Amino acid sequence: MLDAARIKPGEWVYDLGSGDGRVVITAAQKYKANAVGIEISEILCKSTIKRVNALGLASQVKIIHDNALKVDLSPADVVTLYLLTSSNARLKPNLEKYLKPAARVVSLNFGVPGWTAARVEMVHTDRQTHKIYVYEMSNRLKPAAK
User: Fold this and answer.
1) Structural domain includes residue 70
2) Which domain holds residue 120?
3) What global pTM score does this model have?
4) 2 within 8 A of 31, measured Cβ to Cβ
5) Does residue 146 lie in a domain region?
6) How many structural domains does the chain have?
7) What CATH number corresponds to the domain at position 101?
8) Per-residue pLDDT for 146 more than 50?
9) Confidence check: pLDDT of 123 > 50
10) What gap in Å lies between CA 143 and CA 146, rounded to an integer?
11) Which residue, among 96, 122, 99, has the nearest Cα to 109 in the 3D structure?
C-alpha cells in the first residue's frame, strides 16, 4: 500500500484503523514520512505506542485513540485504509471535507463507493491476491480512462 502511494520523505501518512501500527511504523522507517495512526481500540493504541517508543520513532509517529470519523485529516498527504466498503463509504465525507487536492487515498481490497481510482494495483502475497485502490483527490470523480 505504501509503495502504491508513492510516499515522499516528510509527507504525512494517516492510517485509519491503524491496528498494531505496522503501516505507520513502516511509513516512518522505510519512507522517512511522518505518520499518524487512528485507532479506536485503547489496548491496540497502548501497545503500538510502546512499540513506537521502543523503536525510537516517537518524533515521527503519533498514535491517536479516537474514532476515524471524528479526526481532522487536513494535514494528511496520504490516507491508508483497510476497511470494508461500507466503512469507506462512511469515511468518504470526511475525506472529501479535509483532504487537499494533492492528497492520495490508498485502500486495500475495498474501494471507495462513487470514486474513480487513479490506479488499481494487484499484489500477490501469501497465496492471496489483493487489490490496492489508489485515489488522487484531485481526480477521484473523473471518468475512468478507456
Assistant:
1) yes
2) 2-139
3) 0.93
4) yes
5) no
6) 1
7) 3.40.50.150
8) no
9) yes
10) 9
11) 122
Pairing mode, strands 104-108 and 78-81 = parallel
Cα separation, 49 vs 43, in Å, equals 10
Distance CA 8, CA 2 (A): 10
Residue pair 23/57 in contact (Cβ under 8 Å)? The answer is no
Look up cell 501518512; give the residue: 13
Taken as a whole, the chain contains a residue count of 146
Confirm whether 96 is domain-assigned. yes
Query: Cβ neighbours of residue 54 under 8 Å, at least 6 residues apart?
Result: none
| Contact predicate 22/45, CB 8 Å | no
User: What pLDDT score was predicted for residue 40?
Assistant: 96
Q: What is the pLDDT of residues 43-74, one digit of tens each?
A: 999 999 999 999 999 999 999 999 999 999 99
**HSE of 143, CA atoms in CB hemisphere, 13 A:** 2
Q: What is the 3-state secondary structure (H, E, C) of the chain?
A: CHHHHCCCCCCEEEEECCCCCHHHHHHHHHHCCEEEEEECCHHHHHHHHHHHHHCCCCCCEEEEECCHHHCCCCCCCEEEECCCHHHHHHHHHHHHHHCCCCCEEEEECCCCCCCCCCEEEEEEECCEEEEEEEEEHHHCCCCCCC
Q: Is residue 144 part of a domain?
A: no
CA distance 65 to 31: 24
